[in-house]
Each structure stands twice: as structure tokens, then as C-alpha cells.
Hints:
- The chain has two domains: about 5-170 and about 230-260, TIM Barrel (Alpha-Beta Barrel); about 175-225, no CATH class.
- The model has no long low-confidence stretch (mean pLDDT about 95).
- With about 260 residues, it is α/β, with parallel strands linked by helices.
- It contains ten helices and nine strands.
Amino acid sequence: MLTGERAVTRTGLDAAALKPRECDVRRALDLPLDSVAIDYEGRDHLPDAATLRELARVKEVWLTTPVRADGFDPLGDDSLYEWVPEGVGQVLVAGHPAYLTDGERSRAIAPRLGAARERVPDAWVGTEGVERVALAAGGTQYELLSRTTERDFRALRAAGFEGELALYAPTVLTDDEDAVLDAVGGYAARRRPVARALPDGCPTDGGATGRARDVLSEAIRDYALVGAPEAVGERVRALKDAGADVVVGYPARGVEEFLG
């Protein structure tokens, strides 16, 4: 296939989110998308500065930087701020607890987001779990797709919010239900409303049956972009009609799916 004919180009996605523990982030150079967001999965998995510079020469690059983590703490160890190459944007987040030490998790988020925004005024701000704090910090609001995203975005726009809204969503480019559940069933199951609705101890992948499968089949469409590329494209257009400016897809079955 020619690059312009790849399935991901029919989705309307603006960027891909890559996880450095899962793939070489240089694969972004092969993607037919102009932008890439690189998730933070611990300091040991940060791409080196040379790789980031290589990507930034041809792509718009956004690097997730947890404001509570040593190295990215604007009120403490801030040694990695100068390490981020020129031309690489930052996504300021509270930080996933799995990638933080006990000491890092105990640090206050709000003052650090504010201080980081002063230092990196063009940064995006991740809203997961800190929506009001993120909105107060300003900048592009970077949200996770949820069942209320379209309603929330319309409400923000109706209230006069004129800032940029970016959206992150796990993405699976198939309508094979078992494959979709294998890729994002566990992710959807961790969302609180879904966890409450699921039977205790049930499988959350393609092996789910009965009520568990019914709940998960609905939930994956609330929290992820799934289906044939054209169907995903329709959902992306609806999200943009609701107010999203940028939609970032994480290839939940691996970056190869975005290259096919």
C-alpha cells in the first residue's frame, strides 16, 4: 500500500500515541500522521534526546512529563527540563502511580502543574483525575475519551471555553469483537462505572461471556475508538463536531496496525 492509502489515514486521527516499553518510538517516522505523543512509562524507558531530536525534525512531538516525577518536578528535582530537546512539546500530567515512587506519589499536584505551565507555557495539560486543576492551569486540555466526552466538550464550548481540546483514545481498527476485547477489554474494565457493573472475577478479554461480555462490548465503545477505519472516522468527526481540536489514537494492538 502507498502511505496515503493506509487504513489509519481514513480514521481522521491527528496523531498517534506510542509507548516506549512496547515499541521503538522511531516507528513514528513510518506513520502517515504528522504528530506523535510519547507516553511516560518510567524514567528507565524515556527515549534518549537524540531520538527525540530525530523525530522532531519531521514530526510534531509531544512528550508526557509527570510533574511529580524526579527530573520533571518544577518545585524539586527539575534536571530533565533542560534535557528535553528544543522543538519537543510537553504534556504535563500528574503521572500514573504505577510509574512513580511512593515519595513522588505523595507530592501535591496543583502547585506543580501551575509552576510547570509557567516554565513551559505552550504545554498540553493532562486532565485525568485532576480536571478542575488542569482547567485552572490553562493550556491545551488533554483528556481521555469517556462516555461523557462529547457532552463535556459541548458544555465547555457553550460556556465560552476557547482553548484547545485534545483527546486521547485507545484505538483498534477492526470490528472483530474478540480482537477488540483482547485489545481494550481490560482497559475499559478498569474504568470505575464499568468495574462496578462487571461480575466479580470475570474475564475481560475475548473470553468474556454473558453479562460480562454485554457490559464490556458497550464499554469499549465508550472508552476507545473501535471498528473499521471508516467507522472510527465517523466517531472522530463526531468528537470534532463536539469541540475536539486534536484526536490522538493509541494503537492498542501495536503500532503495526497503524502501518498496515
